[in-house]
Amino acid sequence: VRVVTEYTTEKLLKRYTPEQLAATKVGYAKAQEFIRRFVAAGGVLKEGSDSPRGMAGVETIGLEIAEAMGDAPYSIFSPAGGGGLTLATALAVNRTKGRGRVHCVQPRGNDTIASQLRAGEIAARAVTSTTSVSGLQVGSVLDGNEVISVCRRLGGNGYVVDDESVFNWQARLAREEGIFCGISSGCNVTFTCSIRITCGCAP
């Protein structure tokens, strides 16, 4: 908890005023205290996104989308850090034998998979992560190689987006659509909307 707090606070220093940061630190302190009390009361902290069993459950996202689309062609643009979400979704889509494609979208400052997939490479690459998009700051190779393999099998591609656009679209989702999602969701929305704008459609 301490390491995550310090790392995130360091990232926030680049974006917010001292007053906003002070409020943020209070929030993190409360979160730390809650976790300490939870564990002291006998609570158990489960594995997060690195849990194979937990990520296998994410496959239901791909299955539900495939079921809704039926025989129609469709594309899923998935935000990726280590690639767990993208891999689980793509594996599910692949099993349905439908007409779905799964594409990998990453921040330009954490491009471990997307450009490798787009360039026809078979392996992801480790990078020094410089993105401010929390949740996607994974510079090491985790599920990247598998993501490249299954996305290519489905006809998917890799795309990178800039942090500024990601934060902008996340804010617009909240302000205009009432969708309060994580910053990482601004990644795939950024690219999807860029396609619509290119095609002359309003996002």
Brief write-up:
Strands 1-2-3 form a 3-stranded parallel β-sheet. The chain has helices spanning 2-12, 18-40, 52-57, 59-69, 84-96, 114-118, 144-153, 163-177, 185-198, and strands spanning 74-79, 100-107, 158-161. Helix 4 (59-69) crosses helix 5 and helix 5 runs parallel beside helix 7 (144-153).
- The sequence of SSEs as H and E is HHHHEHEHHEHH
How far from one another are the termini?
38 Å
Radius of gyration: 18 Å
Label the overall shape. globular
Strand fraction: 5-15%
> What is the helix tally?
9
Strand order across the biggest sheet? 1-2-3
Query: Helix proportion of residues, in percent?
Result: 40-55%
Mean pLDDT: 82
Tell me how many strands there are: 3
Biggest sheet descriptor? 3 strands, parallel
Main structural class: mainly alpha
Unreliable stretches (pLDDT < 50, length at least 5) are 198-203
Report on the architecture of this protein.
The protein is mainly alpha-helical and 203 residues long. The protein has nine helices and three strands. Strands 1-2-3 form a three-stranded parallel sheet. It starts with a helix and ends in a 5-residue tail after the last helix. The C terminus is likely disordered.
Summary keywords:
203 residues; mainly alpha; three-stranded parallel β-sheet; 3 strands; 53% helix; disordered C terminus
Q: Helices and strands in order, then pairings?
A:
Layout: H1 2-12, H2 18-40, H3 52-57, H4 59-69, E1 74-79, H5 84-96, E2 100-107, H6 114-118, H7 144-153, E3 158-161, H8 163-177, H9 185-198
Helix pairs in contact: 1-2, 4-5, 5-7, 8-9
